[in-house]
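pasting for ref
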Amino acid sequence: MNQNLIPTAEAVYRLIQELNKLPGIGPKSAQRLTYYLLRASEEQAKLLAEAILSVKQKITLCSICFNVTESDPCLICRSDQRDCSKICIVEQPQDILALEHTKIYNGLYHVLHGAISPTEGVGAGDIRINELTKRLQDGSINEVILATNPNLEGEQTAMYLNKLISPLGIRVTRLARGLPFGTELEYADDVTLTRAIEGRQEF
């Protein structure tokens, strides 16, 4: 779209365009957010800008589980209060937030940063599966919980991981099917997630 045809200042147009690139933010939402920020105080705008820059400058990935963290290893991996015999495998860091919010699971995590999707050209080598297999070599893990999303890509990834892990003699379980197929973990409510964790099944 030609910016010259839009009756607004270039700075406003730029902000709308950038916000529109965010997931879940359509053109109308981007406009609403932009005009909200225009009305907000300069201090409020600065706090938002500083928070965004801080995330980009301070956040790294845990070298063990690949969750986002400000310190390496992350708080979960270095905690002596966690059950180190269990690893819950999730697709994205935000899935950990959803599971932790239930206060039911007390083991460790491993973040794949994606799911196997042949149609999108994403194979096992493109996500953190090699790093997972290395974690399983020392014999300290007796259960792996597959908490991939209940959609086609998540199912493909879970099946692949089950075939990979089962020969190691490690128990492989998956979240119970209280989770509707086609949804993502971060959008599931606490009760559903709690039941899914407690009712996990052998793969």
